[in-house]
Design goal:
6-stranded antiparallel beta sheet, two-stranded antiparallel sheet, globular
Length: 110
């Protein structure tokens, strides 16, 4: 019985650990260009138009990286995340804000 409890504890620790390499790979391969017209969908969804094509689009963010900074974004701003980079930028009328993906479990990702 004691072995089962120890095994369950170890398993729960392994499952709860973040796989930083996978998350970095996910975000590095993500691309999004969005003129924000609605950020009321909460931290998981920003909707608007692609500023380059004019088509309606959304930047779904299931791991909530963009949403961590939604208080820095307003309707009319442009969110740009280029494929191959681990940062995104928010272009405002008079400034550009850059948000790095940053650190995960003590390692800096760039």
């Amino acid at each position: 019985m004691k072995n089962i409890i120890v095994s369950l504890f170890v398993f729960s620790l392994v499952v709860s650990c973040t796989d930083c390499e996978s998350l970095a790979y996910y975000y590095k391969n993500k691309e999004c260009s969005l003129l924000i017209s609605n950020n009321s969908g909460g931290i998981e969804l920003f909707a608007g138009k692609n500023p380059f094509t004019g088509e309606e689009c959304d930047c779904k963010d299931s791991f909530r990286w963009y949403g961590l900074y939604q208080n820095h974004m307003d309707i009319g701003d442009t969110l740009i995340k280029k494929k191959g980079e681990l940062f995104f930028s928010v272009h405002k009328k008079d400034t550009v804000l850059k948000f790095d993906w940053g650190e995960c479990e003590g390692k800096i990702y760039k």
